[in-house]
């Protein structure tokens, strides 16, 4: 049986991915900073699902996650790294803690997951990272997130180079705007969601389940010759421009900007 570890699996894209991999027969470990949510999700899935607490910014925590999976389920065949946060702010305003907070979770977290997953993955297994449209499309006010996700894309390629000798495939999915708890704030800024949608040829945000389908494809034998690749999944938003987050925020409070 395929053993799948979904990091950041208690919410949004990670949860949709965990549920889909489980529905397709995998034994799933839902690992998340929010352990209570992960436990609830594992209970929702029932058999072949277990929750684990992990903080991807803490190496000992990530190491313990994979040691525990090997001890309890066996070497995983599929690892998906979905943990992410975003701290917005113009470069000239963004404090160092905000910069580091995003880099620590999105980029260092991806590195630590690859490091410790890569040591225990079955030969022929796969790692899929969730990068972002912002890994290649800049957005005003999103410097730390854009830089982190660009780093994830290159990290994915390097990992593909290094792990290919064991038949391990490492790929990235780069979504545009997907409706999840992470993006709930978009609707609070007047006009921002409309701006996103205007810049998507398909005219709507994505659903977590749509991203999960692509992750499940990359993790499957159907993608057996794909590694070091990125799949864009954004309603066509990469063909246009990214919304000007700073302009929208400034319009909310013109005296403060
Ligand atoms: P989400 O619903 O907020 O889920 C992210 C999960 O990661 C949450 O359960 C969160 O736990 C967990 N997490 C945060 N910090 C962590 C840490 N240090 N260690 C372990 N887990 C941690 O977000 P999402 O929208 O599904 O995002 C999933 C991934 O897709 C992220 O990498 C994100 O950058 C990327 N992405 C999202 C979109 C989008 O539009 N939604 C677009 C492009 C890329 P807490 O709730 O406790 O923080």
Automatic annotation (TrEMBL):
It comes from the Bacteria. The keyword Oxidoreductase applies. The keyword Flavoprotein does not apply. InterPro entries: NAD(P)-bd_dom_sf, Sc_DH/Rdtase_CS, SDR_fam. Keywords: Oxidoreductase. PANTHER family: DEHYDROGENASES, SHORT CHAIN (PTHR24321), ESTRADIOL 17-BETA-DEHYDROGENASE 8-RELATED (PTHR24321:SF8). Belongs to the short-chain dehydrogenases/reductases (SDR) family. This is SDR family NAD(P)-dependent oxidoreductase.
